[in-house]
Amino acid sequence: MKIMKYFAGLLALSLLCTGCSSETSQETPPLETTVSTQPKKSTTEPIQETTEPEIPTYSVEPLDYEPVENESFEYRAEAEESEYSGTLLDENILYGYSGEGYLSGFSNREGDNVKARIAIPTSQHYDITVCVCADAPVKNALTVNGKVIGEFSITEPNQFTRITFSSVYLSEGEAVLSVKELDGYFLLDYFEITNSNRTQQLSYHADYPLSDAEATTSTQNLMHWLSLNYGAKMVSGQYVSDSSNTEMEVIHRLTGKYPAIRFADIGCYTANSSADAVNVIADSLQWAENGGIIGLMWYWDAPEGISSVYAEETDFHLSDAIPELVEVPPAPAEPPEDEEENDEDSEEEEELTAPDIMAINAVDVALLKPTEIDELVAQKKISHQCASLIKDIDSVSDALKAFAKEDVPILWRPLHEAGGGWYWWGADGAEAYQWLWNLMYRRMTEYHQLHNLIWIWNGQDSNYLVNQYDIASLDIYLDPAEDFSSRHEQFIRLYEMTGGEKLLAISECSSIPDVNHCFRDHTVWSFCGLWYDEYLMTNSGMYNGNYTPAKKMISFYNSEAVLTLDDTQKGFEVELPVPDIEEDEEDNVEEEED
Fold first, then answer.
1. Which residue stretches of the chain have pLDDT < 50?
2. 313 included as an active-site residue
3. Which residue of 18, 89, 252, 281 has the fewest C-beta atoms within 10 A of its own C-beta?
4. Are 131 and 196 contacting, i.e. CB atoms less than 8 angstroms apart?
């Protein structure tokens, strides 16, 4: 899992880079305190008494950031006119460069370095462009003042390509731009910085409708509550590894607060699961009874064959589960009522062309009963892999019905990180993943009548985007030394991917965001979910501070802009928007009169 989480971080970082536009296109004091009394002189063994650690209290921390005002700025620093050393050379052989030439000789040799010093007139967001060229695909990274902004890939051979990192916050003063060689072997033409206005273009809606038109009132209330807070508050969340809730207690003992959302995995409810059986349902319901929000993900071990979530470990292939496709023409459009029938002399119908043909599954299995599915397998109309998929969805659906029975809404995140390809549900491509998402959505909402789910799409790749979902999220894992900040660049990328029409969240992270940076950058994620293990604590249950220093964690949970369990315990009942029926009827009458 640790290895895959690292790769998940790479995928999230790649989103930062795919958010680029190309014109070629530290250990804190122990939290659990054991106090030993001085033993009395006695022939018996000393008695040790333990006391519960005192829970700290902190004042509410106000937001502390300078609002950003966009000012016009544009500057290009030619590479050949910048500071460079080592074996780098000023050349002008390849056509298409800017200025007097470009720098060559980047071959990962020690001592090779280039620095472009640019005076930044005001603290704000800027677009930073690097113009580069290579004769083969290579990957390197842009740095500003020694900090990696993001990686970039050169894919078009032998032509200078502009790659832009959007809306990077730079402070007033000198900015030193450079390239950190990963692969090396590229030519550098110039760096360019211009002011960015994309931050000002971001907006947060007052309400985001659910994809499930039959969603329960409690589910609508939670979604509306999230919508009202989106852009104004960030909801805290934490993943737990088992029933002990150790992660929640670690945070409570450090910050004095509990997270609002308790995230857990429901993968142990399927027949082929290798996960340890845990009381996910009972534990989650208990958190909900205490006023918290429930978030569930599904580490789905392959439905049959070798049990694993990882494509490289299991012999299960999603493509084997998809029913055969058949080509059918679209249904003919009905002619207007006043149109006269064509006579025998009318023009012949045009032949259907390829774009007019639709490819659909020969069998729609989403709403079939188990006995009907078994019959189709016997008739070899669908595969046993397809049947196994549905059985697993049914098993998890049955587990989720416990929440529906208690009228508890769920932040539901299945089929995560599909775009990375390391999980079997994403390894066979976008179309297979989208088929599975649609199957699961319809099976759960229509067949099992689960209307208490808020669907979170976490595909992390625009090619894997689906139609029916409510929240879009990213999983972001960074090196401990790297500043997590607001992840503004990735927020913009996801915002654009979803057309600004969905709530955006960080569903998994290695560190909590800097809440002040989030507001400065106009990047107020709906919620964030910190992963467990080394990202939070030691094996003995102590806060470790490796990824998030204790001071930062305390500030986050006590920020005026962060919602915790104290806030959710007040409830989610809000006044839902009701359509003005009378007004709509009047409009219809007017249309009829016209």
1. 1-4, 6-8, 10-48, 339-358, 579-594
2. no
3. 89
4. no
